[in-house]
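FW: tagging you since you asked about this chain on Friday. Here's the raw sequence from the shared folder, copied in full. Didn't touch anything.
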Amino acid sequence: MISVVKAFDRSPLAELEADDAAALERKLATAQKLFKDRGSWLKVYRRISILHKLAALMEAKREVFGRLIASEGGKPLTDALIETDRAIDGVRIAADELRTWGGREIPMGLTEASVDRRAWTLKEPIGVVAAISAFNHPLNLIVHQVAPAIATGCPVIVKPAMATPLNCIELVKLVHEAGMPEGWVQTFLPENRALSEAFATDPRVAFLSFIGSAKVGWSLRSKLASGARCALEHGGVAPVIVDKSADIDKVIEPIAKGGYYHAGQVCVSVQRIYVHREVMTEFVELFAERVNKLNVGDPLLSETEVGPLINPGEANRVAAWIEEAVAAGSEQRGGGRLSSTTLKPTILINPPKDAKVSTFEVFGPLTCVYPIGSLDEGIKEANSLPVAFQSAVFTQDLSAALRAAEEFDASTVMVNDHTAFRTDWMPFAGRHISGHGTGGIPYTMHEMTAEKMVVFRI
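HL: got it, structure written out here
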């Protein structure tokens, strides 16, 4: 059995039956049988209809999903409802994308050997999709894996994070209520980690969608069956530069949101803040004042801005990293502990460059502020780690903005906005060890398709 508890107070939410090896085999065999039978493939108009009905059903349960996200994942209710709205819109994005979904003409007649021919491509589902998700967005991340699979016609088996499976289970129920035939969308709740690896690396899996730690993601990729493709979404140690020209009054709020949203448990959460020395004192005082006012506590309360970490072990780890940095000479602003899972927001001023908080993804309510003497120094420091995801610069100097945009080692550069900004139709991908492939609803749909070329001789 799998016990699901509230992230905030660890009180019980549900007891779920786990899947054993026999269950996994049944689910993979079902998915493979559906894919192999081309006659069973759902027509595009049916997929569009199912997605639209699913969005409507989700909308009717907006409050249910919001409270479920806040309960099992600990995200403050206000943000949990926003996640629900995004998930609903994500389903509609997948449906809308199908209206212009198609292949392309391949030019012929460009050489004597290619005359009297016409060629074009068709988009087909790649095959069985294995989706492994993370806890921090327990509804929207599942939508980013399931909705593209429905749209492209791929059978999908989705494994939610074991700490937050309830949103996934509820969503899949609604998928079937929306008219999806049995077997096309299945959940998988493995009774142990070995089964998770067996699931991801099974030769019947054509595409692995993985959202989680780099260590696990890269390990799974090395063990994929021959021919299988994958997309890996890991994390970063997101850098932000505050240039000397920045309007400090306009910088504080977005950086506070980007750093402490969902208690920092976001793969592109603001973590390293490089501030020009000319504005360092002003920034630190205003930033500390704002962070100190963040309302911390029960995520089910409407006024809460920062909730718990996912479990006591994660809270202990983050607290230990902070203590280690302070012992090494970092100045601490804020912090403390509210409960076994809940840490108060912390700011560390100029921690050592080799400290864990400076080199690894914290995934907790912590930001680090470092003084810099120039934009070039900030860019150099921002690019100093092997991770690379979303970065940001705050400046009123156009040349500084353009230089940072071009020189950041990042997949996305935000100008005058925090690193955690995202829409569900934009590409979302890490570079280097931060990921592989591209997320975002339309881009995942592309990853889940295979193109077939038809050459017609007249």
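FW: The first strand starts at residue 2 and ends at 5.
HL: agreed, and The chain has a mean pLDDT of 97.
FW: great, closing this out.
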